[in-house]
Design brief:
Growth Hormone, Chain: A; MFS_trans_sf; transmembrane helix; two-stranded parallel sheet; about 65% helix; 17 helices; transport; three-stranded antiparallel beta sheet
Length: about 550
């Protein structure tokens, strides 16, 4: 546990005026407010996140290109595979959070996950480097002779799912560990912690942008082996950077009882309390002390309020699932759209299709300082809320923007199909459509601004609203939104592909000039609108754990 991160915890720590309650330093002594944590420690952790996201997006952002290229999978099958892998990647943080919050603590879990990450990326590099593991190159149309064998395909999938397992331990713990460096009980540090979530996401997107701009070019034009090897090196550097900051960190001092066991007891006690109360009120002449006794028993060492607080998160979690389906499209169909357009800059340079995702990261990196330094102080004057607007208001604004981004994507796709038809390119899917890639930029920028609101809002909300001992779990719950969303997206694609192909060309035909991604985008916009209405219903009645926040 984090209560004794490196050295045994002293039996009688010396009191100090600046000592913090509930946190220790790397030696196991009470953490000093003046010499530990805050931005000094947080910057190390943000730096680790930049390197880790560089490594992760080095795999995820261009995965569909590798699957439809060297592995020769169809567009629909590759999109489903990417969504499934992304879904598993987003669900595994639940296991990582459980291990961190119950056994090892966040610091040690990050160390173990980093080592596993490095191993997984090493195997992935070997899968594209060694002749026995690398899929054969094809100089002609795809055929049996140049398809990878089962062992090559299996080894590749084993490596990427090992990456998913590693980031499952790394992702929730790193962000929670970073937020732990700020004391919510201190007014200044509390405001800094809210700002931390903004700059954390800015660092995340900076790492993603560098990946998309540089690494995707290497993968598409130089070598997949080098393109996978660079993330391997980046993850090694991330581990070194994390270790360098050890002396500056604050470690959350966990209680002896597992927080998961505690919350489980709370849920059971809550159910029993309500059952006893209901029974007592419905039976004439029932002992009036029975319900009181049950409540007193439940309150003895078990915080029922914690259970109610966790249950209150469920409707918010569920209503955000449709956004997660929208979120999945940038690394799948947006990328495939871009591959059909004129991507030339100058006379010879071709922008890699996956590099278009950099516009998302660039817009986020550009907008977060505006939001954090301009919009928040302005809105704070009117709302008197330290964060400017509430977390749920921020998420709601993001949902509205996601609807607009899907509508814009649909309109652009209609334009792309119309251009292909005008130039007689419907049945020439490999011919570049005379339409500039810049047509896609607005939907990418809107997509990025959407993330500033909804993604950062969700991160802060799920960290802030769970019990203190379960904050890794809180961020894991946030990530599971996107895990389930990816599974829903994968299932929806499979169902729509099968049903629409019966009456003609599938919405997701390998020939995108005969596909109808525009219909799919309009469908997502409509479902997002319904999801927003349901979200607003639950958000308006949500009771925040922290008094300084107010409902939507």
């Amino acid at each position: 546990m984090d209560s004794s991160p490196l050295l045994p915890f002293p039996t009688s720590p010396s009191p100090s005026a600046s000592a913090m309650v509930g946190f220790v330093d790397y030696r196991g002594r009470a953490a000093s407010r003046s010499s530990s944590g805050r931005w000094t420690a947080a910057l190390f952790i943000i730096g680790v996140e930049i390197a880790e996201r560089f490594a992760y997006y080095g795999i995820s952002s261009n995965l569909i290109t590798y699957l439809t290229g060297p592995l020769h999978e169809s567009t629909a099958a590759a999109a489903a595979a990417v969504n499934t892998w992304s879904g598993v990647s987003s669900m595994l943080p639940l296991a990582g959070a459980f291990v961190a919050d119950s056994y090892f603590g966040r610091y040690k879990t990050i160390l173990f996950a980093s080592l596993l990450y490095i191993l997984a990326l090493g195997l992935l590099t070997l899968s594209s480097m060694l002749p026995s593991l690398r899929p054969p190159k094809c100089s002609i149309d795809v055929g049996k002779a140049c398809s990878p064998n089962h062992f090559q395909t299996g080894f590749f999938y084993f490596a990427i799912y090992l990456v998913a397992l590693a980031q499952g331990g790394h992702k929730p713990c790193t962000q929670a560990f970073g937020a732990d460096q700020f004391d919510e009980k201190d007014p200044d540090e509390s405001i800094s912690r809210s700002s931390f979530f903004n700059w954390w996401y800015c660092g995340l997107c900076l790492g993603a942008a560098v990946t998309i701009i540089i690494l995707n070019y290497v993968q598409d034009n130089i070598s997949w082996a080098l393109g996978f090897g660079i993330p391997f090196i980046a993850m090694g550097l991330a581990l070194i950077l994390f270790l360098l900051g050890t002396k500056t960190y604050r470690f959350y001092q966990m209680e002896g009882e597992s927080p998961f066991l505690r919350i489980g007891k709370s849920l059971v006690a809550l159910v029993k309390s309500r059952m006893v109360s209901s029974h007592a009120s419905s039976v004439e002449g029932a002992d009036p002390h029975r319900s009181k006794f049950a409540k007193d028993e439940a309150a003895n060492g078990i915080q029922i309020e914690e259970a109610e607080g966790v249950l209150q998160l469920v409707p918010i979690w569920a209503t955000c699932l449709i956004y997660a389906v929208v979120f999945a499209q940038s690394s799948t169909f947006f990328t495939k759209q871009g591959s059909t357009l004129d991507r030339r800059i100058g006379s010879s340079f071709q922008v890699p299709p996956a590099a278009l995702q950099s516009f998302i990261s660039i817009s986020i990196v550009a907008f977060i300082p505006i939001y954090d330094r301009i919009l928040v102080p302005i809105s704070r004057r009117f709302s008197r809320i330290p964060t400017g607007i509430t977390q749920l208001q921020r998420i709601g604004i993001g949902m509205i923007l996601s609807i607009i981004s899907m509508a814009v994507a649909a309109i652009v796709e209609v334009r792309r199909l119309k251009t292909a038809k005008e130039y007689g390119l419907i049945d020439q899917p490999k011919t570049t459509i005379p339409m500039s890639l810049w047509w896609l930029v607005p939907q990418y920028i809107l997509y990025g601004i959407t993330e500033v609101f909804i993604m950062v809002g969700l991160q802060e909300f799920f960290y802030d609203q769970v019990p203190d001992a379960l904050r890794s779990l809180g961020l894991a719950l946030y990530l599971t939104i996107f895990g389930i969303g990816n599974f829903i997206s994968s299932f929806a694609i499979a169902v729509i592909d099968k049903s629409t192909s019966k009456t003609g060309d599938s919405w997701f035909s390998d020939n995108l000039n005969r596909a109808h991604l525009d219909y799919f985008y309009w469908l997502l916009a409509g479902l997002s609108t319904v999801g927003l209405i349901i979200y607003l219903y639950f958000a308006r009645s949500y009771a925040y754990k922290k008094k300084q926040n107010t409902p939507v």
